[in-house]
Amino acid sequence: MAGDESAGGLPFVRGVSGVCLFRSELLSLLKTYNCYHEGRSFQLRHREEEGALIIEGLLNISWGLRRPIRLQIQDDRERLHLPVTAWTSGQPTCDQKEPPPQDSSRNPAEELAADPLQRAESSSHSSEPLKGDTEVPQLPRTRSDASCVIQRRPKGRTPSEAQRVRQHRFSINGHFYNHKTSVFTPAFGSMTNVRVSSTMTTLQVLTLLLNKFRVENDPEEFALYIVHESGERTKLKDHEYPLISRILHGPCEKIARLFLMETDLGEEVPYDVAQYIKFEMPVLDSFVEKLKEEEEREIIKLTMKFQALRLTMLQRLEQLVEAK
């Protein structure tokens, strides 16, 4: 049956730390998972492809980074000039009430970073003409008036205002993003999600998540960890499948969560150690004292035992010598 093993899981599927389960068991866990997320977008779908069971859906991943990460800035200059193109077309700016249509293929993080800039620029450029229309409604606007406005508006922002815009810090899904330095500081424990399948390995999921937020860092700098409520922490190996691991640990994020952490800073915490993590230092100190006392009692007990054995051996040797 080892030859039937596959990433999608033919007769059985390999999950966390080499744990294998049959397809029927996986489908039962999947049913429980979907019942927990009933009526929500986190339900998973499954299908068969060339005899393999493929599961697809959204996977929640929590940020657990200790250091900031770098983001790409590609078309920032083009976004700043988009409103200027509309003004130079000869159309009055006040008629442009609807925002330009957004490209559905744009990255969500990029859209959230761009929108504040566009809103700030459109408000600063459109406030003056709107005010003029309100104060002098009886004066008709001519084409020459619009052309004068068109010439002045691109130069309306002072260098100090432009500097403030460049230094402005935006919030992307609850995380802070510095527009000037391209530094991304995810809030620890905040959650995001990516659409994955059961055939995607840990490295592939990491690459997909970093590409979603245009992160320049190498995916090999990071790792995925399953963090339990007890404090137990298990690192997913490169050949494991995060979506399968999520199903095996159940749907409840309070019991087990999937964290993105640095490879060099994250460390595994076994269950034996995790059960003591949440105790306060005085309690842990008392545990250490109890263990020391128990150790001393064991040392005394073993010392007395071997002394008794030594005495018995000496007595037996004396008996053998006397018998000769």
From TrEMBL:
Name of protein: Ras association domain-containing protein 4
Gene3D superfamilies: Phosphatidylinositol 3-kinase Catalytic Subunit, Chain A, domain 1
Species the sequence originates in: Trichechus manatus latirostris (Florida manatee)
PANTHER family per UniProt: RAS ASSOCIATION DOMAIN-CONTAINING PROTEIN 4, RASSF
Transmembrane residue ranges: none
Coiled coil spans: none
Domain SARAH: 273-320
Pfam family, one: Nore1-SARAH
Recorded superkingdom: Eukaryota
GO terms classed as biological process: signal transduction
Gene: RASSF4
UniProt-annotated stretches for the region Disordered: 84-164
Domain Ras-associating: 177-265
